[in-house]
Amino acid sequence: MSTPSLTISRILHAGYVFECEGTRIAFDTIFENPFSRNCHAFPDVRFDREQIRRQHFDAVFISHFHDDHCSLESLDLLDRATPLFIYCLFDELFDMVRQLGFSRVHALRLDVPVDVGAFQVVPREAMDAEVDSMFQVKAAGLNVLNVVDSWIDDAALAGLLAQGPWDMVLWPFQTMRELEVLAPSRTVAAPPNLPEEWLPQLRALDPRYVVPSSCQFLQEPWSWYNRAFFPISYARFTAEVVAALPGTQVVRLDPSVSVRLDATSLRPAPSLSWVLPIGDQNVDYSYHGNAAAPSTADIARQFAPLTAAQLARVMEYCRVGLPERYGAVDAASDYFDRPRIWQLSIYDHTGAVTRFRYRLEADGRSCPAEGNTPLAWTTDIPAAKLYAALELGESLTSIYLRINDAGFDADTERELAQADVIDDPLIRCLFSDTFGAYQAAQLRRLLAHRPAMPAAGNHG
To answer: What three-state secondary structure class fits 55?
Structure first.
């Protein structure tokens, strides 16, 4: 009689396929490279889309709405009868998925099990329960924790310990400096070691196996983010975890790689045939802090020129849309509770700059600033990326914003030390009080390319 086992295969980032006793489920299915517009798989892969269209999953589980976990263009490759289980507090996402044609769409609830064939999947509470979730996966007498890319607080850890013992933990091994790279001249480079809470948490969970999970991407090949965004290497993660948990084995699963887990061992299994590795897969992250951050003008030269209509959209937003929007969004700190002069610089594909100056009033009003009043905040952005944020749903982490990359008078500098980078007026106008802009843009493109339905009564 064969030993009960569970096969786990890596797709990309936080994407996995789990198979047991003829049941096949998937998590955070991303079948794109690049994904989220400019996240390039690392190590590099491509996807056989036609094979993916022929795959059958008994269920797909999505941990949260971020576009590197929930992509409508990836879901578009799946059979519309596939049951989708999504953790999200916003009805808009469920509406969009149903518009794509899925008929079995379910909202996950924390700690409420979902049984699918041989599997029981239980969403567990992450640190930011308004955004994401973790997954406990039980099958073949085995217990796997998929942390996805969330963080764990003390209360959640206590709950997870009560659910142990754990055979395997898929741990989000990479921190990302999404905000620090926005103001490199004002940010101290983070050390390349693991956050101090990780090892005590892993020691408490005490799994047999740990998989360094999530991440697995870089930005464009020319991007300085590739040496500034990701402080932790696979090698560093492995060394620190092995030293802290000598009884735990660290197992790297690159895209397409599969393993078979049972009560006593972990063995290789056949790879996913529709995830196709390209080139050397034994790659690692290299971190250099904020060294040699290029100017926004140089970054803007990397992008193709906007069309006349696209550039006009950007400029009209800067002249009209942005001042109108500013009064509707609030800052996190009190830096803008007094009038400030803000300069927004837009760089085209040649590196040429167009500058806008605004007087931002404490009551939320905004008007063009005239004269030589000293600046109190600056924001630089490539025109191509502002257009992408406006029309394509591109996120903050990839639009190459540069904040306060300038010197100010002494009083302003002292006050800026207490301000938060996300108080930036452009960030607030683009991203405050918005949900699912990326998926909404995807849905518009996908529906626009669908064949037109025949008119009623006109069936030939």
So the answer is: coil
Q: Taking a C-beta distance cutoff of 8 angstroms, is the pair 60, 78 a contact?
A: yes
| Domain identity same for 344 and 220 | no
Residue range of the domain that includes 269? 6-277
What whole-number distance in Å separates Cα of residue 315 and Cα of residue 329? 21
What are the pLDDT digits (tens) for 433-447? Answer: 788 999 999 999 999
My answer on whether 333 and 251 are in the same domain is no
Residue 62 · residue 69 · CB < 8 Å: yes
Beta bridge partners of 273: none
Q: Which of 158-167, 196-205, 295-304, 445-454 has the lowest mean pLDDT?
A: 445-454
| Tokens coding 159 | 């709950």
Tell which of 247, 277, 307 closes a domain. 277
The answer, as to whether pTM is greater than 0.85, is: yes
- The residue behind tokens 């056989």 is 48
- Assign 190 a pLDDT band (cuts: 50, 70, 90): confident
Most confident of 116-125, 410-419, 443-452: 116-125
Written as one string, the DSSP assignment of 123-183 is EEE-SSTTT-EEEEEEETTEEEEE-TT----HHHHHHHHHT---SEEEEE-----TTGGGS
**Residues 6 or more apart whose Cβ sits within 8 Å of residue 130:** 89
Q: Rounded to the nearest 10 degrees, what angle do helices 437-448 and 91-99 cross at? A: 10
Residue 215 lies in a domain: yes
At 35-80, the pLDDT tens digits run 998 899 999 999 999 999 999 999 999 999 999 999 999 999 999 9
Question: Could you tell me which of 430, 349, 440 has the C-alpha nearest to residue 389?
Answer: 430
Smallest Cα–Cα separation from 11: which of 196, 211, 188? 211
The predicted structure's pLDDT at residue 426: 96
Token pair, residue 46, equals: 């491509």
CA distance 217 to 262: 30
Q: What is the CATH number of the domain that holds 177?
A: 3.60.15.10
